[in-house]
Amino acid sequence: MKICLVYWSGTGNTEKMAELIAKGARLAGAEVSVINTDAARPGDMSGYDVIALGSPALGDEDIEESEMSPFVTSVIPLLAEKHAALFGSCGWGDGEWLRSWASRLEASSVHTEDCLAVKETPEGAEADKCAEFGKRLAGK
Ligand SMILES: Cc1cc2nc3c(=O)[nH]c(=O)nc-3n(C[C@H](O)[C@H](O)[C@H](O)COP(=O)(O)O)c2cc1C
């Protein structure tokens, strides 16, 4: 099982989620790559079974728009053939940005039943949820 986690993070919370998810997935036996959007190339994604995208809630319940949003657009055709998952950190919201993101993908026939949101820095029970999420992705 090969998993690629592509994330954007401004203050490190979504990055920490990616690290915790990767740890959980590796413990479950998966081979995991963790890539920042500034180094992610859509053409490098074809060898993975699972592609999980991570962005914090920004703007008004939106994903990061200068790197993650164009990356999403460029990988949509590939995501339709893979298992896709979404994750990210938010602040005051109730996870609306993640639901909107999943709807955007759904409109292009990309199903993302695995979505994980945490508030700010993942710690304690929320850190455990990240590791569990990774374990779940490794079982796809
Ligand atoms: C410019 C800006 C806009 C934000 N907009 C939202 C928002 O719409 N909803 C929300 O729940 N949190 C919002 N937040 C809070 C961030 O999503 C939150 O701090 C998150 O943990 C940042 O993750 P990161 O460390 O990976 O960048 C916003 C933060 C910033 C700086």
Q: What portion of residues belong to β-strands?
A: 15-25%
C-alpha end-to-end distance: 8 Å
What sequence of helices (H) and strands (E) makes up the elements? Answer: EHEEHEHEH
Q: Please, what is the oligomeric state?
A: single chain
What helical percentage do the residues reach?
25-40%
DSSP helical segment count: 4
Order of strands, main sheet, comes to 2-1-3-4-5
> Could you report the average pLDDT, rounded to the nearest whole number?
97
Give a short account of the largest sheet.
Answer: 5 strands, parallel
Number of strands: 5
Low-confidence stretches: none
Which ligands accompany this protein?
Answer: flavin mononucleotide
**Classification by helices and strands:** alpha/beta
- Gyration radius, to the nearest Å? 13 Å
Q: Which of globular, elongated, flat, extended, rod-shaped describes the shape?
A: globular
Describe the fold and architecture:
This protein has 140 residues and is α/β, with parallel strands linked by helices. It is built from four helices and five strands; from the N terminus they run E-H-E-E-H-E-H-E-H. The chain has a five-stranded parallel sheet, with helices on both faces. Helix 1 packs across helix 4. The longest helix has 15 residues. It is globular, with a radius of gyration of 13 Å. The chain starts with a strand and ends with a helix. The model has no long low-confidence stretch (mean pLDDT 97). The protein binds flavin mononucleotide.
